[in-house]
Amino acid sequence: MASFLLVCSLILMMGSLFLGSAAGEPIYSLCNKKTNYTSNSTYQANLGRLISSLSSSAPATGFANDTAGEVPDRVYGLAICRGDVAASRCRDCLAGVARDAAAGCPGNKGATIFYEFCHLRYSGQNFFGSSTGTEISMWNTGNVSDVPTFDRLLGELLDNLTIRASSSERRFATGVVDFTSFQKIYALVQCTRDLAPETCNTCLMDEISYIPQCCEAKKGARVIGGSCYLRYEVAPFFNPSAAADPPAPPPPPSVPANMSPPPVGTTAAAGKS
Ligand SMILES: *[C@@H]1O[C@H](CO)[C@@H](O)[C@H](O)[C@H]1NC(C)=O
Ligand SMILES: *[C@@H]1O[C@H](CO)[C@@H](O)[C@H](O)[C@H]1NC(C)=O
Ligand SMILES: *[C@@H]1O[C@H](CO)[C@@H](O)[C@H](O)[C@H]1NC(C)=O
Ligand SMILES: *[C@@H]1O[C@H](CO)[C@@H](O)[C@H](O)[C@H]1NC(C)=O
Ligand SMILES: *[C@@H]1O[C@H](CO)[C@@H](O)[C@H](O)[C@H]1NC(C)=O
């Protein structure tokens, strides 16, 4: 993966994008600067407690959402690890995120701190159950050869995975499809588990529809938001055994399946928070 040059773009100006790195992993902090807390406030204390409890409870199952304190100083937060990541790596990742939270967005009441294998999101507003849609995209600068075939297969694969993830307990799915006789497309999709199946579906569809804008013809890309995530590459990047989910039941009829190919020119996420 080190050989992949990644480009990152912030498409939702909810705050500023902070780029840094810690423990050798990339981190992207989306800081919501619209509301701040003051030093030594009740909010700050609640936030500190919440971050430490989320980062210790999430590794067991890969996800936790919780609140700390009472309105008006209540903090809402979630912590999540990528679905194929073992508990020990999840714990390390969230420890890094917890450390970086204060430094990444000092004084801001809300933020999302993204690492490669986990992310942490918190806010003074209740955001549980709602979709952020697309917030960040990154792409591999390498181009694919046969774009129409690639787009068709990738669209099908992502549609299939979206249906599987939305209806699965862990809101997570991975898959592989043959692109050429010697090249495959590997993809992973995931939602935070506070999302209902339909909302997970909506979140991932928003990200899929952003691919033509950010990442057309690219060999790999990530489209990332505080409540869902997708990534695809022409090289393996996830752990297939850990990623194996129990066989999914047939998708519920309420889940739309007509998501392919992603339309060009849809609004990415402007105006969403
Ligand atoms: C919050 O703090 C940031 C600095 O981190 C500042 O840029 C921003 O203007 C502040 N927002 C408000 C609403 O005071
Ligand atoms: C916050 O508390 C720390 C440690 O008790 C103290 O050093 C600092 O001056 C306080 N800051 C403010 C703004 O009150
Ligand atoms: C986590 O999110 C779910 C779904 O929105 C919500 O019903 C639940 O109360 C949240 N859990 C906590 C501990 O706040
Ligand atoms: C991929 O295609 C773009 C646009 O056609 C071009 O600017 C870029 O140099 C290509 N990248 C590589 C690695 O060939
Ligand atoms: C998508 O799912 C359908 C139905 O299960 C299957 O026939 C098709 O091969 C899948 N396509 C990809 C690219 O995974």
Automatic annotation (TrEMBL):
Give the signal sequence positions. 1-24
The answer, when asked if Acetylation is one of the entry's keywords, is: no
- Which PROSITE patterns does the record cross-reference, listed alphabetically? GNK2
Key words of the record: Glycoprotein, Repeat, Secreted, Signal
Instruction: Name the chain's protein.
Output: Gnk2-homologous domain-containing protein
Provide the family line. Answer: Belongs to the cysteine-rich repeat secretory protein family.
**Keyword Glycoprotein set for record:** yes
Q: Tell where it localizes.
A: Secreted
Q: Which Pfam families is this protein grouped with?
A: Stress-antifung
A GO cellular component annotation in the UniProt record: extracellular region
Database matches in InterPro entries: CRR_secretory_protein (IPR050581), GNK2 (IPR002902), GNK2_sf (IPR038408)
> Gnk2-homologous domain location, by residue?
25-127, 132-237
The ranges of region (Disordered) come to 241-273
- Where does this protein come from, organism-wise? Spirodela intermedia (Intermediate duckweed)
Q: Where is the composition biased (Pro residues)?
A: 246-264
